[in-house]
Every structure is written in C-alpha cells, then in structure tokens.
Amino acid sequence: MRLCKTACARRTYLSVLGKPHRIGVARLPPAAPRPQPCRTAATAAPRLENHRQARHDEVDMEPAPGGPASLEWIVQKHMQYLGNDPFKTAKHVQATIARGRFEEALLLARKVSKRADITVSWNHLIGHLMSAQRLHAALKLYNEMKKRAQLPNAQTYTIIFNGCAMSEHPKLAVAEALRIYNTMLNSDRLKPNVAHLNAVLKVCSRAGDLESLFTLLESATGTRSPNALTYTTILNALRVKELPLQTSTENADLDGGERLEAHRAKVDVSIQRGKRVWDEVMDKWRHGKIMVDEELVCAMGRLLLSGDVSTQDEVLSLVEQTMGVPRLADKSTLARERRARRDARQAQTEPRPKPPSVGGYAKPGSNTLSMVLHSLGATRKTALAPRYWETLAPQCPDR
Question: InterPro entries this protein is in (predicted)?
Fold first, then answer.
C-alpha cells in the first residue's frame, strides 16, 4: 500500500512539470530558423580558392621541433606544389632565402636534385653564402652541387668569382678563385668568358697580386678578349694604395727619407706599366676593337695623378685625347705653343694616326671634372679651373 501511494505521487509531480502552462509559466515560442546564404558557382569558387590559399599558408609557418610541422614535412608539402619545375623551384628557393629560412631552402634543393636539374636554385644558395661572407661554406656547397649531378653554369662561376672579390679575406679568396679559373681553362664542357676574367682580375686587384693579374692576361684570347672593364681593372690595380711614409713589411727597416724614395720608385714603375697598357688600349681604340668610356679614362688619369708634377700635367692631354676636350693653356704657355706649332710646320714629321670620330669619344662626367680640377691644383694652374668648369660642368648630370 505504501509503495502504491509513493508511485502515484511521483506520477502526479512529473505530470505537473511537463505542463508549465498549468502553473502560470508562459511557454516560449519556437526559435525561427537562421537564414542560410545562397551558395552559387560565383561564391563557391572564391571560397575554394581561399581554402587552398589558407592550406598553402599553413605550410609556411615556422616548424615546431618534433611536431607535425617539422622541416621535413614542410619541404614535402612544398615539393607536392612545386613538382619538377626548375623555374618554380628556383623562385621558391629565392623567396625562402629572403625570408631567412636558408636551411629549409637547402633541404628542398637537395631533395629536388634527385629528380630534376635545378642549377639556378643552387646558384641562389651559393650567392647567399657569398654575400654573407661565408666563403668556405659557399665553396663547400659548390662541391656538393657537383656531387649531386647539378652541373654549374656560367652564372655559377660568375657568382663565385664576384663573391671572392667581395671577400673580407682577399689572400684566401685569390687562391680559391685562381684554382677554379684554371680548372675552367682545362675543362672541355665550359670555358671561361671575359666576364669571368674580369671578376678574377678584380679578386687579384683587391689582394694586390699583380703577378697573378698579368699572368691571367696571357689567357685573354677569343671569348676572353679584354674589354674596357678589363683595362679599367688593371689600371686601378696598378695604382699604389699605401701612403708614402706608411710602414709595411718591405720598408720596415728603412727610415723616413728612404721610405719616401722607395715609394716614389714604386709609383714610377706603376706609371710606366700603366702607360704600356694604355698604349695597347689606344691601339685597339683606333682600330675599333674596344670602346673607351669615362671609367677607363679616369682610371688612367688617377694613375697619372699619383706621380710627380710633370706626370700630373699629362691628365689634361689625356682628356683631350680621349674626350675631345681641347687642352686649355694660360698666357705663359701660349707663346711656347705657338713657337712649337711653327717649328712643327717647318719640320717634316710622320703622320700620326687619327683618333676616332667625335662619336667614338668618351663622354666626360663628374669624375672627369674632379680629376681635371685635381690636376690643375697639383700643377698650380688654378687660373684655368673656371674655364674647364664652364666646359665640363654642363655635361655633368645633376644628382
């Protein structure tokens, strides 16, 4: 009997809870359905593209050590997108290096090298190490590149030689550059060109190794025929860099006067060698085998400025010879020039070879103007400075 009463009370209580309106509680109306956007072909395509881009961006996140986004996993995902396309791989390697992920780019290049020729990608890696002053690492990567059957091209060697020229250790760089250059000379697959020659000459110039520099010129034939940049590099290398009284290993035991005499003798030897090089330049210029530009003229002019007063005065004749700017003279020298011309007309001399036409002259610029003013100041002919300024300044571009 007691159990029946308990069950009846329980049923009554539950029936009251199931009908809230009976106890004065208002029932809430059912919620209205949310409007759904209309999915058409116009909206589906951008959604799919955004989803793909989001998945691609997830691959570019920083790798978590030991997690699913490890370096191996990231590289594998990139390889699925890049495939065997060397162009896409090179662009991706370059962009990855620019983002500071060199190890990721290197691992990608190593894996893709098993199935495609990606020499350009390796060039980007070597160039990055060279710009970071990591000469040994760059050459080690160059050797690894060859071991992975990735044949270096002409641009590879240009990157290596230019990197050696910018190295902070010129003595080490010149040894490596000469070794690689001589290997190219003995190779049947790829011979060095004039760009490689100029780059190696620049390496020798920075190291002050003139003997190796002139030895390299013996191989300057055919596709390695010297151009204006070649002679510019040689003339800049001949210039004596140290100061007259600067102590070096060669003059450590000399006093001040002896050091000055040794410096003058060294400068004279450099100028004489430079003049022999310049005679070769002028001979090729007159025969139309080379173009003379302002940089080449100023390289020779700066070499002349390192000499004595008589040599510094030759700068004005150099500018007249190569740029067609008449040599101006003050009143004291006009009479001597008139007498010299009168004597020259009376004497029978051999005809001198004519320079090229006006179109073949080098165009003067701000470097030429600076060099001429320096020459006038050193030879105490400052009265001619305004006249040269009026002649050369209009041809100098404003900066």
Answer: Mito_RNA_Proc_CCM1, PPR_rpt, TPR-like_helical_dom_sf
